[in-house]
Amino acid sequence: xxxxxxxxxxxxxxxxxxxxxxxxxxxxxxxxxxxxxxxAARAWREARFAAAGAWLAAQDxxxxxxxxxxxRYALALARSGQWDRALAAWEALFGPAxxxxxxxxxxxxxxxxxxxxxxxxWARYARAADQAHAWPRAxxxxxxxxxxxxxxxxxxxxxxxxxxAAAAFPAPEARALLTELAQDASxxxxxxxxxxxxxxxxxxxxxxxxARTFVGRALAAAGRWDLATWSxxxxxxxxxxxxxxxxxxxxxxxxxxxxQRAAGALWVARxxxxxxxxxxxxxxxxAQGQNRPFTALAWARRAWALEPDNPALAANLAAALTQALxxxxxxxxxxxxxxxRIHPQDPxxxxxxxxxxxxxxxAEPVALPALRAVLAQHPQxxxxxxxxxxxxxxxxxxxxxxxxxxxxxxxxxxxxxAHLYLGWLAAQAGRTGExxxxxxxxxxxxxxxxxxxxxxxRSLQRLEPASATPQAPPEP
Length: 476
Prior knowledge:
There is one protein chain. With 476 residues, this protein is mainly α. The chain contains 25 helices and no strands. Among the domains are: 91 residues, Tetratricopeptide repeat domain (Serine Threonine Protein Phosphatase 5, Tetratricopeptide repeat); 88 residues, Serine Threonine Protein Phosphatase 5, Tetratricopeptide repeat. Helix 15 packs antiparallel against helix 16. The C terminus is likely disordered.
C-alpha cells in the first residue's frame, strides 16, 4: 500500500517542532548554569568568594546531582563565611562522592588541584561542621577522616582527640592520642600535653560536671573556645545547679559571639552563686562588649570588692574605669598597684601592671620599673623579657628592644608575644620578610582567638597586599 505523504507530513512537522521546542527548553535551562559557572570561576580567581557562591542559584536538577558542582559550591560558601549553608552543601556532596573514594575534583580557577582521598573530604566537612557549631557531626567526621586515611596526619588525630575530650568523659582514647601527640615538635604539642594532663586530673573527680568544666578550661587554654563551650554546655546539662559551668559557658558564648546566651548563662551563675566574683567579672566583660561602659564598671567594682588583691579583677576594674571615664589613669594605676603591695613576690601582679601601663603609653614611669622588679626576682622570666623589649620598642630604642626580645625567645622559642614584637620591630626597620616570618610564628604559637593572634593577623594583613593570588584552602 503506497505511503500517503500528505497525511504523514503534518505529523512529521509536528514531531520536528516538538524536538526543537524541547532542545530550546534544555538550552534555556543550561545556558544560565554555564554562564553562572563562568562568573563563579572569574569571581574565584579575583578572590571574591561571596560572589562565587552565587553561581548555584541558577542550577537545575541536573547540576544539583553533579558532585563537582556541589563541591565547588561548598568551598565557595566556606570561603565566604556562610558555614551553615556550606555544611548543608557538604552533606549533599557526601552521598554520591564518598561511594567512590578515588573521585577527584578540581577547584575552579586552579589548574590540576585534585582532592586525593575521601579522608580529605571528611576533614573539610568536619571543618565546616566546626564553623557551623555542629560539634557532634564534626566529631563523627574527624573520626571518619582518621579511619579512612591510610596514614592519618597528626592534624587529623589532634582534632579528633580534642573533639573526643570535649564530647566524652573520661575519654581514654583521647587521652592516649594526646599523650602521643605531645611528644611531637609541633605547635600543637604543648596544647596536647595540657589537655591530656587535664583529662588525667579530671578522672580523679567525683563530680562529672566539675570534670567537664575542668577539661573545658584546658581546651580554652589551648585556644579551642568552641570545643570548650561545648564541654561546658554538657556540664550544665549534667548538673544545672553547678555555678562554674554556667559561668564558663557564658564566657565561651561571649567568645563565640553569642551575647544573649552569654547574658542568660551569666545571670544564672550569678543567681546560683551570689558571692562568687567570676560571674560578675564576666558580666563586666559582657557589658564592655555591648558598649555599656558604666554597667561594666559597676560589675567590675562588685567583683573587685570581693577579692581586691586578685590581679585579674584589679586589671578588669582598671580597664573598665578607663573605658567609662577616659583620663582616669591614676586611679586605675592605684588599683593595679594594690595587688603588687599585697603579693610582692608574685610576678603576675607586676606583669599585669606593666602590660596595662604599656597599653596606656606609660613605659618609663610605670612599666619599666615593674618589669625590672620582676627580672630582679626572676632574671630569665620570658614574658617579662618580652614586655621589656616592647617597652623599649615604644621608646624607639631598637637595640635594647632586640636584645630583650632575643633573650625572651632564647628562654621560650614558642613565646608568641615575643615573635609579635619582633615582627613589629622588623617592620619598623623595613625588613618586611623577617617581619612576616615572626608574625607567622606568632600566629602559629598563639592560641586561636588570643589577642596576640588577632594582632599578628592584622599586622600580616597590612604587610601582605590584599590583591595577592588566592591559594587553595589548606588541609588541616
